[in-house]
Amino acid sequence: MSDVTKRPSGMFGFTIVWLGQIISFLASGMTAFAMTIYIYQQTKSATAMALVQVAYITPFLIMSPIAGVMVDRYNRKMMMMVSDIASGLATLSLFILYTTGHLQYWHLYLAVAVSGIGTTFQWPAYSAAISVMIPKEQYGRANGMMSLIEAGPGVVAPLLAGMLIPLIQIGGILLIDSITFGIAILALAAVFIPQPPPTSEGQQSKGGFWKEAWFGFKYIFERPSLLGLQMVFFFGNLFSGIAFNVLAPMILARTDQSTVALGSVQSAASIGMVIGGVIMSAWGGFKQRVHGVLLGWMLTSMGGMILFSLGRGLPIWIPTALVGSLFSPLVNASNQAIWQAKVAPDLQGRVFSARRLIAWFTNPISPIIGGTLSDFVLEPAMKNPGSGLAHIFGSVFGSGLGSGMAILFFLCGIGAFLVGLTGYFIPAIRNAEEVLPDHDSLPAATEATAS
After folding, report:
1. Nearest to 311 by CA among 247, 406, 389
2. CA dist 277 to 73, 164, 184, 224, Å?
3. Is the whole model's pTM more than 0.90, yes or no?
4. Beta carbons within 10 angstroms of residue 395's beta carbon
5. Distance CA 200, CA 444 (A)
6. Which domains occur in the chain, in start order?
7. What are the backbone dihedrals phi and psi of residue 191, each rounded to the nearest 5 degrees, phi first?
8. Measured between alpha carbons, how far is 410 from 309 in angstroms, rounded to an integer?
9. What is the pLDDT of residue 366?
10. Is 420's pLDDT higher than 90?
11. Which of 133, 160, 346, 430 is deepest in the core (most CB within 10 A)?
12. Measured between alpha carbons, how far is 199 from 344 in angstroms, rounded to an integer?
């Protein structure tokens, strides 16, 4: 047996990679919290905060088709390491600029853009790696564990950052984040991740670079069930993106810029996601996973957006944030398991990149919509007791700072709820798992050649 194959693999190897990532995400969550406070204290602008998200997501979307081709063509483990190296270098650059007193806003936007490019390679590579590392019966559990990477660190990252910033300043947070990227890279280097076996579909999709880049979109558009699932996330992400990009300024505005309040709400939401992720890791989700997607969207929107918007303080915000986020792992893990079971592993880089681009296509726009509506329309209107908007909604949402953003949060929650409900009335979406065959029922490339 070679040294390569002696390396940890399977569920054990996946767990090693998972541990490296969760440590790195903890530090990155601290950095994100620190940067959120820093920008708001400097600008008091929801729009300025929203532009950070725009700087992250725009290069991510532009590079997605290219990343998908490279993930399918080259070693997926290498693609994962490249993404971590890019994000680590971006964070290290911010650390150097901050400690030398040269950090400016455009530096932050540039660093976030570089991290976005790195993530472009990371997500499809990790998703496709799961498909070849573990059996499909474990997809739901593995994706539940992956949801913990995003949720788990969020439980302690905001509070930990809030306590550490007075002691080690933002520079110390950035240094810790840079070091943990190295830990994640070492964890990847230690395991064996097999390349996917070739399939007939994969062989037929080969061609020039741009042909392969377009193939992921073609694959989805030729399958109404997959396209329908993506439309659920397209419109759901539109509404939730508009809302959650004003979450931090809404809480800060309504609590006299209390970082403790903001950290408490974010931690409550993360606790809900951790609980949901643990449940998914043990349970694996509904047998018919589409229920996890559609019902999950409805429950998340009801608790985490509609009911949350009605609160004016922590007694309502904390429990609704926790309950609303509880169902988020159900949505994402169920959807991920459907795609991993239906799309052949040697196609997943391109298809998953196209899929993410479609689902996130509105992300560069939704922060601008949310920030603009909040700063220039809803907030000014709710400050004026004589306005029609204040007269209609004032008794429910109040008329002080943050009330206009609360209205926006409420309306977006209604929209996201209807997205999940609508999916049940469309057969191609409701019956997606019966309509589409599993990828392991498709012929292998060698079988296709022999025939």
Report:
1. 406
2. 32, 27, 21, 29
3. no
4. 9
5. 6
6. 3-438 (1.20.1250.20)
7. -110, 165
8. 5
9. 86
10. yes
11. 346
12. 7
CB atoms within 10 A of CB 149: 21
Output the CA torsion sign for 336, 337, 343, 348: positive
Q: Kindly list the distances between the CA atom of residue 260 and the CA atoms of 22, 29, 360, in Å, as whole numbers in the listed order.
A: 23, 16, 30
pLDDT digits (tens, 9 = 90+) for 120-134: 787 777 777 777 787
Per residue in 79-93, pLDDT (tens digit) is: 888 888 888 888 898
Q: Following DSSP, what letter does each residue of 88-121 receive, concatenated?
A: HHHHHHHHHHHHTT---HHHHHHHHHHHHHHHHH
CA atoms of 267 and 418, how far apart (whole Å): 27
Query: Tokens 């997500």, residue?
Result: 123
Q: Is 363 exposed, middle or buried (0-12, 13-18, 19+ CB in 10 A)?
A: buried
Residue with tokens 């996201």: 416
Residue type, 175: L
Question: pLDDT by residue (tens digit) across 220-232?
Answer: 999 999 999 999 9
